[in-house]
Design brief:
This protein is α+β, with helices and mostly antiparallel strands. It has one domain: archaeoglobus fulgidus dsm 4304 superfamily (archaeoglobus fulgidus dsm 4304 fold, 2-Layer Sandwich), CATH 3.30.2170.10. Helix content is 20%, strand content 24%. It contains five helices and ten strands, in the order αβββββαβαββββαα. It starts with 12 loop residues before the first helix and ends with a helix. The relative contact order is 0.23.
Length: 286
């Protein structure tokens, strides 16, 4: 898969922060043009000695009927919403276009077939710096995605989208490189405040932040005291929620629906869960 070349990586701290502010203005909050057929999951991990970082990209095909092949990952989700397509508006909508809290009704499950996996390994060259994680992890993620022969319609990435102090987490950063609909699905909160969603699967509340980044954006998405930056989504009953946010080229309600649609009986959606399984195995051999 071809990936955009947006910038170089050998930047100072100040340059990286300035770049984040600039790139955050380029994230697009647009409706999905069509239901995705190929969904990619992306995750990375460090080796035990912290000298190398490994990224794994997996591609799942959505099937119309249950698959019987051994490579299929099939399960019925108790909270799979219907998917509808709406025309793209002339003005970029706000990401907070879903109710402050709700429960996505349970519907029939969807089925996946695993059609491709790719991985990449890179030496760790940047130390951990809070807020700049994407500069450490994105290059190896890009390397893995560039090896894909199948071009995904949508990416779900283990990390933050715009739910970031400067509104450019790993998923948002990568979403600009991929120029594809991208969703950030993180296991924990990086910034913002929220109320716990109800305990049932499909419930969610909004993740909000009062600290506004110093951005000059042409899109009117920061016109209230509390800015919606994501959703706290219960993907499994009585289990900790995940933190979902827009990465690029989708809306928050699309991100929440697709995350739930891709979640089977586990806490994580299948694309990132399988990518996490694969990278966890690979790092033991590096």
């Amino acid at each position: 898969m071809r990936v955009k070349k947006l910038h170089k990586w050998n930047l100072s701290y100040a340059q990286a922060v300035d770049l984040q502010k600039h790139l955050a203005c380029r994230v697009r909050f647009t409706p999905l043009k069509k239901p995705p057929k190929l969904i990619a999951g992306l995750d990375c991990a460090f080796t035990k000695d912290s000298q190398n970082i490994i990224a794994c990209a997996i591609v799942l095909k959505i099937l119309d009927a249950p698959a019987t092949a051994a490579s299929s990952a099939t399960a019925a989700s108790s909270a799979t919403p219907s998917f509808s397509v709406t025309p793209a508006p002339s003005v970029i909508p706000a990401p907070s276009v879903i109710p402050a809290s709700s429960v996505i009704p349970a519907k029939a499950g969807i089925h996946f077939e695993l059609i491709e996996t790719k991985s990449a390994v890179r030496k760790v060259t940047i130390p951990y710096i809070p807020g700049l994680l994407s500069f450490r992890e994105a290059p190896v993620c890009i390397a893995a995605v560039e090896r894909l022969k199948n071009e995904p319609d949508l990416f779900i990435i283990d990390g933050q989208g715009i739910a970031h102090p400067r509104r450019l987490g790993l998923a948002a950063h990568l979403g600009l490189f991929f120029d594809k609909p991208t969703i950030g699905c993180a296991k924990s909160r990086l910034t913002g405040t929220f109320k716990d969603p109800p305990l049932q699967k499909g419930a969610y509340t909004l993740l909000k932040d009062t600290k506004k980044p110093d951005l000059h954006t042409k899109y009117e998405i920061r016109d209230t005291k509390y800015e919606t930056i994501g959703a706290v989504v219960r993907t499994r009953t009585n289990v900790k929620p995940v933190f979902v946010s827009v990465g690029n080229r989708c809306r928050l309600k699309d991100a929440v629906k697709m995350t739930l649609a891709c979640t089977t009986k586990y806490r994580l959606p299948e694309p990132t869960r399988l990518a996490h399984q694969l990278v966890s195995k690979l790092k033991l051999n590096v």
